[in-house]
Write a structure and sequence with these properties.
This is ABC transmembrane type-1 domain-containing protein. It comes from Dreissena polymorpha (Zebra mussel). It is a single chain. By secondary structure, the protein is an all-alpha fold. The chain is built from two helices and no strands. It has one domain. α1 runs antiparallel to α2. About 0% of the residues are buried.
């Protein structure tokens, strides 16, 4: 009977734990995407430095005009790509923050549910204590008065 009363709370507790696990996996996935984007950004910056070094070398070889134009085109392309990646990076950071807040909310909800379960167990213990106390007190007085 007690287990039937606590079964919905235990099922809800298990569901919350599964949801918490799903939120953690989603958080790991978002962190992985963020890391990949940061690596891509670093690669783009490295390419930009390489292109600048190439520009200096080509200045020494007197092919300034043609290669400067090519380098400017590549630089504009890299800047455009960087400008395109920046909102995506900010969006991923925002999603990460929302995910962390949801995770915190789930943890708080889980703690409240555990507290409620503990409170119900304490109340059940008190109820059983008072029930047995009343029963034995009544039983003792009834037979005591009946026989004596």
């Amino acid at each position: 009977m007690i287990l039937l009363l606590l079964l919905p709370l235990l099922i809800l507790l298990l569901l919350l734990l599964l949801l918490l696990l799903q939120q953690l996996l989603l958080l790991l996935l978002l962190l992985l995407i963020l890391l990949l984007l940061l690596l891509l950004l670093l690669l783009l910056l490295l390419l930009l430095l390489l292109l600048l070094l190439l520009l200096l070398l080509l200045l020494l070889l007197l092919l300034l005009l043609l290669l400067l134009l090519l380098l400017l085109l590549l630089l504009l392309l890299l800047l455009l790509l960087l400008l395109l990646l920046l909102p995506l990076l900010l969006l991923l950071l925002l999603l990460l923050l929302i995910q962390l807040l949801l995770l915190l909310l789930l943890l708080i909800l889980l703690l409240l549910l555990l507290l409620l379960l503990l409170l119900l167990l304490v109340l059940l213990r008190l109820l059983l204590y008072y029930y047995y106390y009343y029963y034995y007190y009544y039983y003792y007085n009834y037979y005591y008065n009946y026989y004596y």
